Amino acid sequence: RMEGQGSYTLPTGTEYRGELKDGMFHGEGELLFPDGGTYRALWHRGVPTQGKYTFADGLEYEDKKWHYCDGFDRRFYTEICFGLKPAGISQLTNLDPPRKIPQGCYDCGDGFYNPETRVVVDYKLRFLRNA
């Protein structure tokens, strides 16, 4: 069984780095998600007892007083941090400048969906899944 400090990569590509005990996440550790997000937590026998999720763009999730993208404020996080664009210049995603989307494709958050081939590829154009 896994014991001590280590890392473990799940089939989804998510990686755990931290303390392990009796084959489980136990102690301080973090999950590193393929999209760039991280979840740092204190684990007890495989279950997080307290932790914090940070999105890839640096936004930290708060369980209470969450002000990002709620019913009253629909700005992207980068707009909250750096202000709105002048009239006539739209920001369509949180990334500024946005990713280049291949003609006729849709951004899925982890890659691009091509409705002609019904395939999702990652941002480096590697196959992810069939739709």
Automatic annotation (TrEMBL):
Cellular location(s) = Cell projection, Cilium, Flagellum
Q: Any keyword Repeat?
A: yes
Answer whether the UniProt record assigns the keyword Manganese to this protein.
no
Signal peptide range in chain numbering = none
- GO cellular component labels: motile cilium
Q: Which UniProt keywords apply?
A: Cell projection, Cilium, Flagellum, Repeat
Query: PANTHER family this protein is in?
Result: MORN REPEAT-CONTAINING PROTEIN 5
This chain belongs to the protein called: MORN repeat-containing protein 5
